[in-house]
Amino acid sequence: MRVTVRTVGVEEEFLLVDSETGRARAVGQAVLAAGGDLAGELQQEQVETCTKPCHTLEELGTQVRGARATAAAAAHEVGVALAPLATSPLPVEPTVTPKLRYAEMCRRFGLTAAEQLTCGCHVHVSINSPDEGVEVLDRIRPWLAPLLAVSANSPFWNGDDSGYRSYRAQVWQRWPSAGPYAPFRSAAAYRALIDTALATETLLDEGMIYLDARLSRRHPTVEVRVADVCREPDEAVLVAGLVRALVQTAADAAKRGCAPDPVRTEVLRLAEWRASRSGLEAELLDPRTWRPAPAAEVLDAFVEHVAPALEESCDLHVVRRLIDDLLHRGTGARRQREVLGRTGDLAAVVRDAVHRAP
């Protein structure tokens, strides 16, 4: 008999682009009207897909591919293409979706909101209660930066090479409520932090709690938000598999009475910066020592850390295979730079990604 495991689901954000020029196109509302289970975002040059809660990674992979195909078909209906890129390689002046909330965000946050055309991958894993969810949040903190490195897919920004593998992470950190967080210790303390943040009248609402991981407002899940949208569907499945195992490992550790790693938030910011800068192409900070180590070694440590949970969900072999494939192929950021090096054309970078979107 198969063991009962936590469900996992994925939300992915994509650019909408001209299939010839590679330029981002402000047609989000038209794409939504074309059909499919899609959602709009802050900017009209993007669209979001989501899967249903899944019990197996095979099921999740099927849904990720199906959601991408649905979004690509809706985009085609209005004469554009879907690009799994976390930032636009070509220059763009984003167009804000006409909603009162988004208009207020732009008024309050200026260029931070106006330039925020970035695409992420959010993974939801089921939890039994807010208390369990906060115990999980406190214990997954050290391993979130490696997830960013795995997903790195945004080396270019407005026509320039940023020097980063995930420049989306740098842009996202402009929000006052984004990034790593300190341990909460209890669901009551988590709620108190949100209430305090809202009472400052800096944020519009609870939806702007943009921490790397949080309790979902709408679902009984932990939502891990640190990753770029992945170029390949298999990379999205890999991120989701690692996140689910990480959540289970954290919940098990809490039941055993194991305290969270006391690492300071400032160190987590350093770890995330390094993951953003180099992806898997140089050293990351190893959460076991907080010293630099080769990226492949850190991924081995990640798998070792969550191996019992991966075995329980029958995912260990799949995750190891997906990691081996990723290390051989390279991240989306590496692929983008390779295409630019071969063609000298950022439009070709976009077209290359579009070809593989479904």
UniProtKB/TrEMBL annotation:
Lineage: Bacteria, Bacillati, Actinomycetota, Actinomycetes, Pseudonocardiales
TM segment ranges: none
Pfam families linked to this entry: GCS2 (PF04107)
EC primary class: ligase
Signal peptide: none
Species this chain originates from: Pseudonocardia adelaidensis
UniProt-listed PANTHER family: GLUTAMATE--CYSTEINE LIGASE 2-RELATED (PTHR36510)
Role noted for this protein: ATP-dependent carboxylate-amine ligase which exhibits weak glutamate--cysteine ligase activity.
Record-listed E.C. numbers: 6.3.2.2
GO MF annotation terms: ligase activity
Protein name per Swiss-Prot or TrEMBL: Putative glutamate--cysteine ligase 2
Keywords recorded for this protein, A-Z: ATP-binding, Ligase, Nucleotide-binding
Catalytic activity line of the entry: L-cysteine + L-glutamate + ATP = gamma-L-glutamyl-L-cysteine + ADP + phosphate + H(+)
Protein family membership: Belongs to the glutamate--cysteine ligase type 2 family. YbdK subfamily.
